[in-house]
Design goal:
The chain is 33% helix and 23% strand. By secondary structure, it is of the alpha/beta class. The strands form 4 sheets. Strands 6-9-10-11-12-13 form a 6-stranded parallel beta sheet. Strands 2-1-3-4-5 form a 5-stranded parallel beta sheet, sandwiched between helices. The protein is globular.
Length: 431
């Protein structure tokens, strides 16, 4: 029995690739193990998005190289830096970039001296998330070419998954008992625009998914300029799509948005969030910002801070700019000092903490329905996911204590009784 271990780094989109890789070993001659010391083969699905992710990847590779297993490295970092990695880390037995995934099974067959490793299949995954929840990827690649981002150079141009293939996978997930799905992509709202006639599009897809009977459908990674009124009304009136919009805006300065090669300008973003609040008043708004982009001035920072104060995001994350080779911004003049980046990020997050706490307090007394996600022994409480928090370990938790026993995946109601900066406290509401 050959024992297989896998380490998946980076985003949920990478996790789906990892789940497909696990499915390559589904016959009876293989066993999955979580302890690398017991593995005969360890696959590391790498992330190379920003500098910190690269450091984590290298540290993970070197750590896994201490064991006696055959070591295979795949993923974004390998795609981006294959030759350098081969030279720098000879301990790795096999390097396979994304562009060679169609032949991954053949390469592993050769490494293990077998002939039964399956080919990667988008419709065959070993779901690694809890048995009531799964991610559903609808496309790969990106056409935006933001000046700070290497994704188009790693994953290629935007390519929508075939419409019927997505629906087939969604039906299979539903049949397995999956209650909630999170729709993911590099650019979710662009789905279908590369098809002839630009149809079916994201609206068509969501309308079909909404009719399948999932308890919850959540949209992640929406590009601001692609969010239509039609989409917002669909979310508002749907049976299962969460009133939760994850819209990374990067900053709120028109000057910086231009330098970033973003399609929107500040007035466009202002109008968008005003419209969302009008159409879906209870929508949870999440965004991501970059601090210290080349050319960023004190005026840009003040403009972004004022915008955050105006919009009052429910969830907001901020990352300091990472200078990535191959991107347009790598060669920009006026690179910002690391200390200035950190100070500006801290200013933004200090403001957001106040906003988040005040927003969370408005939920006190609200009854929310959601999925029990487990028991947190550190807090001696159960956790629950409602429309308020996403399943990607970025948002806060909702904790509730109860003498009644609950199973993960159970749908119940709770009443919010207290609020903190990132978390909510609740009590069970009996049926």
């Amino acid at each position: 029995m050959t024992k297989i271990g896998l380490v998946s780094l980076g985003c949920s989109k990478n996790l789906i690739d990892s789940e497909m890789m696990l499915a390559m070993f589904k016959n009876g001659d293989y066993e999955y193990v979580s302890d690398p010391a017991k593995a005969d083969l360890i696959i590391i699905n790498t992330c190379g998005f920003i500098e910190s992710a690269k450091r984590e990847t290298i540290d993970t590779i070197l750590e896994m190289a201490k064991y006696h297993a055959k070591l295979v490295c795949v993923g974004c970092f390998v795609e981006r830096n294959l030759d350098e990695l081969k030279e720098a880390i000879p301990e790795v037995d096999l390097w396979v970039p994304i562009r060679e995934y169609a032949h991954l099974h053949e390469r592993i067959d050769e490494l293990l001296n077998v002939t039964d490793v399956k080919k990667i299949d988008p419709l065959d995954r070993v779901i690694s998330t809890p048995d009531y929840s799964a991610f559903l990827r609808i496309s790969d690649g990106c056409n935006n070419f933001c000046a700070f981002c290497a994704i188009p150079f790693i994953r290629g141009r935007f390519k929508s998954r075939p419409y019927e293939e997505i629906l087939k996978e969604a039906k299979a997930l539903k049949a397995k008992g999956i209650k909630e799905i999170s729709i993911i992509s590099q650019d979710t709202t662009y789905y279908g625009r590369d098809f002839d006639g630009a149809r079916p599009n994201i609206y068509d897809l969501l309308k079909e998914l909404d009719g399948m009977g999932f308890y919850s459908i959540r949209l992640l990674y929406l590009y601001p300029g692609e969010i239509s009124d039609e989409l917002l009304y669909l979310i508002r009136d749907s049976k299962s799509i969460a009133h939760y919009l994850d819209i990374p805006i990067q900053c709120a300065s028109s000057n910086l948005l231009r330098l970033m090669n973003r399609h929107d300008r500040k007035p466009d973003i202002v109008r968008l969030f005003k419209k969302i609040r009008e159409i879906i008043p209870d929508a949870v708004l999440r965004t991501t910002l970059i601090s210290g982009f080349p050319g960023e001035t004190t005026r840009d920072q003040i403009e972004t801070l004022k915008f955050i104060e105006e919009v009052q995001f429910d969830k907001l994350g901020d990352f300091t700019y990472s200078r990535e080779e191959g991107t347009a911004a790598y060669g920009y003049k006026h690179q910002v000092r690391e200390s200035t980046k950190a100070r500006r990020r801290d200013e933004i997050m200090t403001l957001q903490k106040k906003i988040s706490y005040n927003k969370n307090k408005t939920h006190i007394g609200e009854v929310m329905e959601g999925i029990v996600t487990g028991f947190d022994r550190a807090h001696n409480s159960y956790t629950i996911r409602t429309y308020w928090n996403a399943p990607d370990d970025i948002d806060g938790n909702i904790y509730f204590a109860s003498s009644k026993c609950f199973k993960a995946g159970q749908i119940i109601k709770v009443r919010i009784t207290n609020a903190f900066i990132y978390d909510l406290i609740a009590e069970y509401v009996p049926e």
